[in-house]
Amino acid sequence: MTIRFSNARRLPGLVRSAVVSPASLAYLGVVAATAVFVAVDSLFVHRADASLAGVWLFLLAAPAIFLFMIAGSVLGDAAAGSAWFLYPSLVVSVLVQAVALGLFVRLLRAERHSPRPHGA
Question: Are 65 and 89 a contacting pair, CB within 8 Å?
Fold first, then answer.
């Protein structure tokens, strides 16, 4: 008895087409521009108090980043607050949301182009 994984072969193409959609690229562009702003603000602007520029990255990565934060709190406060956990979880959550946005746009396009009976 053989099991066929036809959907597993389609997955990379599906993810690729989802990330290459204009909505996903626009989202990734906004996130990249915000990351540059945060980097410039934290490296070159000196203040007496802390800047809240990094909050914008978390707002753009929400709600997926909150799932990583919950997982980090299960691992412990030391893991959740460390850079080795925080930065990769931020990148992964942005990529997951870009794929989800691309798939949502693809779903909307497929829904718009699907033939419907005249009475429905």
Answer: yes
